[in-house]
## 1
Amino acid sequence: MSIRINTSSCIGCKRCAEVCPGNLIKIVNKKAVIKREKDCWGCTSCLKECKTGAIEFFLGADIGGKGSILSVEEQGDLRHWIVTATDGTKKTITVNTKESNKY
Amino acid sequence: MGNTLQIEKKETDVLIIGGGTAGCYGAYTLGLSDKLDVLIVEKANIKRSGCLAAGVNAINAYITDGRVPQDYVDYCKKDAKGIVREDLLLSISENLNEVTHRLEENGLVILKDENGKYVTRGNRNIKINGENIKPILAKMAQESKRVSVINHVNITDLLVKNNRVYGAVGFDVNDNKAYVIFAKAVLMATGGAAGLYRPNNPGFSRHKMWYPPFNTGAGYAMGINAGAEMTTLEMRFIALRCKDTIAPTGTIAQGVQAKQMNGLGEIYETKYGVATCERVYGTTEENRQGRGPCYLKTDEISKAQEDELYKAYLNMAPSQTLKWLEGGQGPAKQNVEIEGTEPYIVGGHTASGYWVDNNRATTVQGLYAAGDVTGGAPQKYVTGALAEGKIAALGIEQYLSINSSHETDDSWEKIVQEYETFLSNEGNNITIEQLEETLQKIMDEYAGGISKGYQFNDTGLALAKEKLNGLYPVLESLRAADTDDLLQIYEIKERLTVARSLIEHLGARKETRWHSFAENMSYPTEDKGFELYVNSVKENGQIKIVKRPLVVDEYTPLIFTFNEDGSVAFAGGEEDEH
């Protein structure tokens, strides 16, 4: 499991590099780059920090990944988590950040 | 890039090493009194560093209505088969609710019923939305103008003279710069140690583990090397987790009451006992005896429950929700496979860590410890770590009201030279990654890792010790092209130091009190003679085991005293050296 950074939408603002708990993101030629993708913990801090939606999260094949990506969109108190499969189909789960877990 | 580091010197009253759960709350507490200058030094960024980076699923340590702090102490004592510090546990328990309320005032969402009371999950847990708990804590830590933060600086060594701490040394992970920080007191709050053993997913997803892979035992290693006493490292923590994603199982087990079931469809939930170590042991045994794989039986839950689980996991372990959706079968259709993780050393779950007194003073004068790095008090979880941050901060205030002299000398130069040596090494065909894998392989095979069903014996431990010792010269020859490489080298060095002490502890407890956590096959049964703490101190490069009697009266807390020259006058009971 790791992240993929979309260079066309990355604006090189460094927000992701600033918060990664593993110091795993650096800026090269004004674009964010993950230094060692195998070292990602999967905490998704960078996805939540990114203002342009340039970072996508995926599972490695060794833990059940099949190529889908997880991305995040913020809308006020709502956080939309979007899973996009390889055939382009999307499934969105919306979490209200002001509501507690039920479990 | 050159191999000479620029030196940046700082001076503060209190240095906090690690801005995670305990460190942030320590800074917040010191900030409230506003009497001292505080500097947090963090190897990542305190906004999202440490255990809480992704969020947390619940507050697991809270004194619910009708219960008293003593109940919590009793629960922890029973779960750890008696090897706990009741004084430490009681001091934590008495603070659990207050720290929770402070978090709520600062924006943590806690579920309440129609009467405004917290909704509980079991006897000690309350339900929250813990996704943003770390940004909330980071903000609280920086409320006072007297608290400052340096992010992206990795501290490697304490400065200690005559058993008294006066600062620490580290380096900037993004820049050719070393930091020398002089402080009157130091709060160690670096968290525990992951990556000692070969992980569940050793390939591409090697860092998909339960505990943060970036918590590499720095605080233990610094303490061990400075001669601080450690306790109960042999009580390893192995978490029971969702297969592959290593996501928490408690949300499913407690949230929708899913039971543990083996591959034959039999519920083995209580067959092996219900202590934390026995839940892991049960699953390990079912697999070993050919009745695996094991599951949490979720295939009877409703669609609505499934949807809530998807959301709950997005708030703390998003990979699990992605796995369910990507696989096309959620928990309502397919039972959730479970497995034990690799062993970790983590004082927030078991009793491993610094030997401290009731103020969280360590046996090195002026050095305090809080959270996962601190031993004696298992099951402290998030709120317990916050409580310890508070207790340590108050302890430091008291200490500095009597001892407030600044020390400086130039012994930091040796440490900076060591950084520069790695940066100028020519290197060879052994890489940082190879060495990490070797360390994990040795621990896995000879010190009770996953591949050995967590079991070890005297012969294996002796071999592990020999092989680990053989890694030091290899480590010293590693080349760091930049300070990012240097960080990785020090992370291995820290883990090697912790692993060496761990081996001594595993061998010294000649019994099996905790299945899986310390399954010593040379001594496979419980021995009443080991109703004591196995502690250790490194002296002249050798790890010396010290056995100390149990602190059983929580109302007479242990308080260390120091001689004029800084040496420890009293560190608890009558020590029994072996």
## 2
Amino acid sequence: MTPWLIALRAILHREALRFTGQRGRFVAALVRPLVWLVVFAAGFRAALGLSITPPYQTYITYETYILPGLLGMICLFNGMQSSLSLVYDREMGSMRLLLTAPLPRWWLLLCKLLAGTLVSVLQCLVFLGIAAVWGVRFPVMGVLAVLPALLLTGLMLGALGLMLSSIIRQLENFAGVMNFVIFPMFFLSSALYPLWKMREGSPVLATLCGLNPFTHAVELIRFSLHLQPALPALGWVLLATLAFGAAALRGYDPARGMQGKTLKGG
Amino acid sequence: MRLLLAALMTSAALPAMAGEIWVTNEKDDTVSVIDVETLEVVKTYPTGERPRGITFSKDFSRVYICASDSNTVQVMDPNTGEILHDLPSGEDPEQFVLAPDDRHLYIANEDDAVTTVVDTQSRTVVAQINVGIEPEGMAVSPDGKVAITTSETTNMAHWIDTSTQSLFANTLVDARPRHAEFTADGAALWVSSEIGGTITVFETKGQTETGKVRFAIPGVNQDLIQPVGFRFSPDGTRAFVALGPANHVAVVNTATYEVEKYILVGRRVWHMEYSPDKTRLFTTNGVSGDVTVIDVASLEPVKSIKVGRFPWGAAMRP
């Protein structure tokens, strides 16, 4: 086995250990979208059923509409949590050890990203199963078709998390990330409401939603789940993944990185 | 697992089938012709004012259209869309039914409180029968011996003996009866009541009430649940009931009168029609101006097709 694969296996193994050791985290990650699906969607049941937007071909329930958004939510929270755990790793020293491995830094970071993303995808699959039992309809083949979209979304959000982790010194800053990154990203997207509806309320907010890479990730998941192509969304997500990945790499480059100029304190 | 299978079935490619669904557009004064295979509108023909009821002759060589505001029933050649001639229909014809003899049309004249019987061959009025105020729903028994008119304001189903063209019974139903249908064996009559929010079931033989179907959709105000048009499934075990502004079609078990499922369709669903092979049901959604296609086996909506403004009636041509 080449050193590259050894590193990949080791990082995946570490993530798997962390994953099996924290079953509570796995369950908790599912509870959040479940509350939205079961409680929030029940309250807003009548909010849709007024228009038909692609990829849907007929009227749908609100539960059906928000399912892709909730899958995105799982990837968002998980990606952030996984990447920001690097802040903790850095504090504990294991991160420094990892980065001293005689391998390119981008490969180590990519391995870390992949490991976190695989956990997200697994959680998404479990959530899809629960949603199907709850009565949300989607094509069975969509479960396969959505896998690459989930993987790409996980990588994009993980890369964003990595980028943020490179400029955050202490884990206590996670609350700030929640308020300034996760919530705006989630609410300024098409996860909970279609953009045409947002446009009726505020064209400015609708434009911001259109620029939000998370919107495109959600649409990519939505179209894939319903077995339809979404090339513009795919392009946006790929571009954002590359941009966040490059910024993260730069952030973790000791010569040029942002670590020297990091934000201090909580 | 059953749900997953149902989801799979709805996503499956649509099987090749021939046929057309003709839909009257109340506000556009047109009929839209939907291709059953491609699920797209392939033709639109102009009609008289406010077309509502629509039905084909047995050999599908003629299509009869109630042009309510033109006070006539139009006879159209379905191959060309040309109006061949009008039939004397009485004032404001809304719904009608073609008798099993393929010759006599029983027409509800909403403004005149009469049911007009028209001979489509001689193009003459055979009889006019006084019924309750604002007659609307029309049905004829499979043997052709009994015709039914429901009157919206009198809240009754009027039973007409077709041999004498006279009433022989009147039965009370809940408020604003809109539509009536006999079961395939003719043993029972179902009448939907829009304001009452129910369907009343009668035994044809003695005209006695034998059951009541009630509806309740979680999260939908009871006032909005207004049953109008309905159709029985080919095997007679289910009835599909359009619930008007509740935007759902109810699937009713005809043995227990219990609702098995509510299917989400467009806004203000009026009437419905089967594809020729009876595997799909097409519902006309008045306010949203579209037709929702329901897969009969999985009871799932497959697609909604934009038609004209305020689609109302629907009829099938193979």
## 3
Amino acid sequence: MRVGEIVTAGVLALLSIYLMYKATANGIGFVAGTGPQGGFWPFWLSLGMLISTGFIALNAIRGLSPASQSDEPVLDDFGRKTLLLVGGGIVGFVALVDILSMYGAVAVFMLYYLKVLGRHSWTLTLPMVLVFPLGLFFFFEGLMQITMPTGMSFTEPVFNVLYDIIY
Amino acid sequence: MEILSLLGDGMLVAIQPLNLLLILIGVTLGLFIGAMPGLGSVNGVAILLPITFLVPPGSAIIFLAAIYYGAMYGGAISSITLGIPGASTAVATTFDGRPLAMQGKARLALVAAAIASFVGGTVSNVLFTGFAPLLATVALSFGPPEIFALMLLAFATFVGLGGDDIPKTVFSICFGLVLATVGFDQISGAPRLVLFDLNGFLGGISFLVLAIGVYGIGEMIWTIESTRGEISKSDAKISVKGIVEDTGTTFKRGWKGMSIGSFLGFFVGVLPAAGATPASLMSYGVSKMISKRPDDFGKGHVGGVAAPEAANNSASTGSMLPMLTLGIPGSPTTAILLGGMVIWGLTPGPRLFVEQSDFVWGLIGSFYVSNFFAVVVNLAFIPLFIWMLRMPFTVLAPLIFVLSVVGGYAAMQDMFDIWLLLIFGFGAFFLRKFDYPVAPAVLAIVLGPIAEPTLRQSLLLSSGDPSIFFSRPISAPIMIVAIILILMPALKYLRPRRAKPAE
């Protein structure tokens, strides 16, 4: 964990430097009579971030923070598996939105999580996979008048039927 | 006595059958809209505004005010049960509401939120009724330096009193504030901090993207990982007797938070451009500051739920005050209400109380009635919300992930923001592993868009002289308190070192 904390502080320090660099494009000076320029506020805050990461790294090197006193790895086998299966599943879900539509992606993600990860019965899984996306559709598109992505053209016939119901 | 008579007449208007029905429908709809991540009172009021053209103007604004009330109550539900602050006003409720739910005390958290909301709403209604014109004048004396001082005080309560690692807290606040500057410079209008030259950043980064990413994705993955997947379901119990007991516990352990939230919330709500979000965050910070056990905050303290919930309800009523008396909206939702009033031919301002007395007092009467029905409806639905929590975690978790993504899209309408939400989620997961407090970043991205312009406007007013913050009677004491709180960690560090030679 100690090395992980120092590396994280280093990555965040680099991010802070990048943000400082970007802020300079708007001017970071203080113009007499008119006040600070556009980049003033983000620049000095990013510098605050950079200084903080210095203290965080120093505390980690001196073993003062709880994380730096731990011998556990940042991610063990279970952690890596969780990140891959759960985190990967969410990334897959979002990636499917532009293909299957928001509601189609929800159905596939629910099927994956309930059946593959949760190992629930089909009796629970199927109603959740079918009813939950439909409930979301009628709530958002019907009641709230908020349109969600409809995916690629092959989903059109399904949406035509659903839109006929609400309009 | 005249006020009481007018209020009585107003209440009679509010309990007319049509208005009463609209209040019931409004608070129930608002409760569910507020409970949905990504949707808040502003969405509910904006979307249902056209429906109100079917009823008389007085009834229409009563309906919209009831939605506003319901949504304020509802915001706490997703914060507590799902751990996702559905609206910015409920961010602070997550800090202690979610830990309480994870400890199997979801019922206590939900009851505390409902009761505190009711108390906050009632206190603010009384203040509104008695002191409307006076408070409107005081609010007008708050200029950019005073508002900036208030924002600094909000940040200071997190730095000076956080039990967390101070450099990590400072990093978190600065990071949230920098994220709030992405998009366009509000004063010059120039593009600013368009990261990696991606056009998606031109629209800025909404607090919702960060909050849903952090709490809906990052925190959930962290929970699954840290519990080794053994978290099956919450053991929260449902019973009427339990709800009554929890009400007693709320008053016993959360009275300080409720009192602070009710009064501070109302006053911050009255200030133009402030609103319920800064009110709830500041009330949380001040409650933590004056608590005998500040370290318990963030781990499931009833006061940590009561303070922000009392505050956001109180501020909602407070923000109606400048709208009605001066025509200045105190929050985005009241801005829409103001628009509605103008469409209905009502002109908000000092003359409204004289020329449209029936309308104004009918509305004020409806605040009391809405507040009462909101707490009744909320308490009645608690078993449903608890039932949600009793689902197996492998059912609840995908529901939370889906609601995070769908709710995020509903609010932002841009897939770029959904990818950003995932990046924040995974980032928050790793930062959480190294004990970085993420709540201050969420606080900062909410308050940043108020803090930066007020700082720059203040410096423009003073031709760049920072002493403006210390030379005005209201901003000076607030600034001094804020600076003391910021320096408190250093003072705490010095005290034992000085004490050593005397031992």
## 4
Amino acid sequence: MDRRLGAAGSRGRRIVIGASALGLGQSATVVVQAVLLATVIRRALEAGATLSAVLPQVVGLGIAIAARGVLGWVWEWTTQRGAAAVGGALREDLVRRMVALGPSWLAGERAGELALSATSGADAVGVYYGRYLPQMVVAALAPVGVLAWVGVTDWVSVLILFGLLAAVLPAMVVFGRRALEATNRQWRGLSSLSAHLLELIQGLPTLRAFGRVDYGRREVAEATEGLRRATLRTLRVAFLSSLSLELLAGLGTGLVAMVLGLRLLDGGTTLYVALAVILVSPEVFLPLRRASVEFHSSAEGRSGETRIQAVLAVAPGATGVATTALPDPRRSTLVLEEATVEFPDRSTPALSPLSLRVEPGQRVALVGPSGSGKSTALHAVAGLVALTSGRILLGEVDRWHVDPEAWHRAVSWVPQRPHLFSTTLAENIRLGDPGADDDRLAEAVTAAGLEEVVARLPRGLDSAVSERGTTLSTGERHRIAIARAVLHDGPIVLLDEPGNHLDSAARRALARSLAGWLSDKTVLVAAHHLDVVYDLERVIDLGRLEHTSATVTHP
Amino acid sequence: MKRGPQATGTTLGRLVSVSPPPRWRLAAAIALGVLTSGATIGLLAGSGVLLDKAATRPGLGAIAGLLAVVEVVAVSRAPLRYAERLVAHDAGFRALARWRVWLFDRLEPLSPAPLQTWRSGDLARRLVADVDALQDLYLRGLGPLVIAVAVAAVAVVVEGVLVPGAALVLGACLLVALVGAPAIAWAGRPRDADRAAAGSLSADVVDLVQGAAELIAFGRSADQLARIEAATARLARASRRQTRATGAVGALVGVCAAAATAGILALGVDAVAGRRLEPVMLAVLPLVALGSFEVVPALGAAASGLADVGAAGRRLLEVGDQTPPIVDPDAPRPVPPGPVEIALRDARLRYETGAPPALDGVTLTLKPGSKTALIGPSGSGKTSVFHALLRFWPLEAGRVELGGVPTDLVAQRSVRAHFATVVEDGDLFAGSIADNVRFARPDAPEADVDAALSAAQLTGWVAELPLGLATPVGERGARLSGGQRQRVALARALVADRPVLLLDEPGGGLDQVSADRLLADVLSGAEGRTVVVISHRLSDTSGFGAVAQLAAGRLVSLGLGGSEGLDGSEDRGDR
């Protein structure tokens, strides 16, 4: 809790303090209202006062009521800012950590669920710290102040109210804890609903093709109905704490009224005291009631926070200490020394120890059956996955000892399954270099053989590329990834199955158009088809881990 | 095709017609709400009368009735409130399922092509968060509106019975508050752009998760983070505007309540002095006035709630009102039973007006049991042949025939029941391997599943898995490798037991040897079925009866399959 507030900075603390003061001020106006109203009624009834005699109190009453409303305004304003500040800070922490954890961690997560955590989840946590917490401070302090005033005015009533308050607190804690458990369940339900619906939308073509749209519809209806039942279960419990509180608040006011009425009968108290106390008594419970109203959203916030903290608790893979400058990648040898990658949830290593030297300007192919570690080796060189053991060096320098930014600048990577971002084709290619001008963009388009695609699209390079690139074929998506890499222009080029989705003529055409760009690059290619890159110096079969040293040359 | 934004009133009307309010539940919630507010006001006002009366020392008998009333009201308020909240929430939630299923049903005929203009993260948000927001239409919108008006009316009547002038004062002040509160709240309502920002924030996070590798490898993750932060800032601004309005409603209510209470108290004191009002009733006047304003803030919340609902509803209708590219004929014709001949006749297909045709005059006949390879470079129209066959997209000219019946005269469902597809991605659903394999035919016998697994070369792999067929595949099959995904999708298609098997790049993620073996096994496993295979590389066409080569949407050659290698290139002779 302190740590989260720490994220919001000293402003967060100021908000809690300021908001609490405002809440206490609101309670004070109620006491003032009660005193003034009781005074007016007593004087009108007992002293037969005319309007002019009590006018100052009547006006004062109006001012006190209005002041409560205005203080409420300022309270809303302050607490909302607190909520936004904390929620925003948490969202930033979360997305930053997601980036730090990297693609191999993200691959095991559900994108829809993470998106929900980073959006509504973070917001709910903000509400918890921005609104619930100050309300709790008020709930803890205001009743004490109000009870103190009642005690000074009428000690019998304070005993009744204090007794009831003492009775309600344990009930609230018990009900609150149960509500929290129920809300945790509900939060998980909502997360999986979100992930599930995302999948159903993305899989709609398959649902239609197999005539199983009924499956999707049933899943949607059942998920919604399940969530309704779960939510109502949660609410039945969540509302219990406010039920107990309101019950005791009503009972308190009723009991105090009865006792005061009976004491008035035998002259045990005065009308002024009785009226003032009865008007104030609901205020003993009101701050707690407000806190319990916020409790539901706060419980959501705490569940959201549990999920978010779980992500934040995952330690990003050991990051190197950038102590050394990156040697010139055009002149340095790329060395893999017993590079090994293991994932905790898999029994066999994703990359068995691989040792390899690639001289500057050399082209080396990695071949081997699916699952032999070709892609993992490229991921490791690209800096996307941490080695379990072994080293990757450029010249004499370990990758972990250089600034990752500099390393990424030196490497152009073409993934096997490229992700296209939901923006224009041009923006997707400019991922390689956002500052690239139109001429360089056109060069990259040509080198990647995308000209025909650009010509075919109605708005050319400005056409929107839909998610997962469904308007584009897999081969075309791959060419976009190649254009990115060309634009990025890192001296070390990693090609993951570059010709896989192309026919052999297209592969040869691509090889011809890439030849110029690749001429001065160090190239590591994972491939089934060796004809995209000319003049391969070596082919390494990861399936057998025997180095074939024959030079493979293509016409 | 997209319709312009509708007024909130129109939108709310459409929403009500899609999912009408659960009438009795809503009425019960409103009745309970009025009673709850009545109890709140009654408790304080009753206590005031009780004390005023007791102060005149009339003896216990005279106040016994009042005492009982006060105690009953004091105890009943909380259960009433509890019941009201549960009933109202239930009513709100019950309406959600119908909206959600309605939207899903409207999305279905838009898939795959027209839906591509939306990001799937954004669509999912519409289906989850926006539909969720609609519960407020009944929960925070209509209910509180009725409750506020009813409570205000009762309060004015009570004041009028005691002091006629007080009714005027309270009526005037309540009117200002009842009109002003929703107006202020409406002014601070979240704009559609804010909701859009929330949608794109969600999509940006999905992009960050799914595209993390690219963002990191190209050193661009900071840009994506900056976009997310900018969206956060925009949402914070919107929320500030809304809060300002909520607070202002509170202040307005405070000022109106202050004016009413003080004014009515003054009238009451005057009436008591003039002996026009029984003194014991003096306390009732200000307390009822003050209490009646407690329902007003809910009215402000109702206004901003309805604005929210309107915005969410517009986002729903924006997608739901799209015209589907294909609708079923009114009187669909049946397809002749059994394996039938399937033919494309002079088919032309265009995804967007103005774009070059994806298919241009393609004629192709698939005899029952035939094996056809569709080859050609990327973008030559191979996948569009599948779209035309599956009737995912209408033809601009020409037709597709199923046993001599043009498919535009047949129900889409009956057309698609002829085909089992395998797409390159696999396109699996979260669930076990068994769930996915049996997806198209949940009641498939064990033997069919085993045969399909073996034809897809999965038997050995499945046997090695600790959980076997019960192994979860993850969201969209993310826990499997590309090759495994495809094999599971292939097994799914074989279990489906449809007359025609459509395979889009089988073995796309596999090495040549495995891909060839997979294809050979498919062709032998699909004995008797019609098979169409899309491939950009075929090292061996011996299994195929026909090889159709496409280029730029046209069929450039149609030959017999043979043993010689074919790869779909235009310059086949040069290797």
